[in-house]
Amino acid sequence: MIEHTPISAISLGWFILVPFYIISFFAFIVASIFIFHFIQNKKKFENSFMLELLMVTIVFGMVFTLLIPRALHANFSSLRGLIVVTLFVFFYVMIRKKSFSYIDVIALATPLFLAIARLACFIEWHCYGIFTNLPWGVSVNGGLPVHPTQIYLSLINLSLFFILYNIRNFNFFNQMPGNMVFTYLASYSFLRLTLVEPLRYGVGTPDGFLRSSLLMLIFIASFMIILIRNRDFYVKNHFIRKI
What we know:
Layout: E1 2-4, E2 10-12, E3 15-17, H1 19-39, H2 47-72, H3 78-95, H4 101-124, E4 138-140, H5 149-166, H6 171-174, H7 179-196, H8 206-229, H9 231-236
Parallel strand pairs: 1-4
Antiparallel strand pairs: 2-3
Helix pairs in contact: 1-4, 2-3, 4-5, 4-7, 5-7, 7-8
């Protein structure tokens, strides 16, 4: 069993430091550095547009996750944020008439961002799991040990980052820009739905059912889009017969 003492907001005179925002900002910086290192010397990418895309995305994300919830006195989960921000990036790239390759790069960096950002949930102790007798169960303030589902989600995202990075040059991704984002969404939603959600606290609550429903919807929609938009690729490579 692991003992853990959550860290809440820290007041430094006029400044109030919230670990969640600090770590999330650090995660964004790390993901941005990876993105610009990844696209360096690649002629099909414009550094100026990638910077523009990152800036408008973080502004939109801050408005959606910080300002709107405060105004509506609501709480928008990271899962709902992932859906809305993904749709925003898609529409922005389409409106600017750019290649979906930009979205693929964002998708490749997203699991890296979430792997780091999820650590903030552990530090502040949000989104924890149910009771467990496993050696890595975490006890907070002398309570019963529970699954550190925040760490599970972080490890899932870190694993997906390394897997997707190593298969990024497959023809499946190079010949059809946009496949990376749908592959990540399908993989993440499936792994989270099957491995983490059953261990999350409040799984039987309305919010738990909503999370599971959203994950199932993301998985099915992403999987169907992959099948439909890549049908010619499957036929060409003899994965399926042409009807």
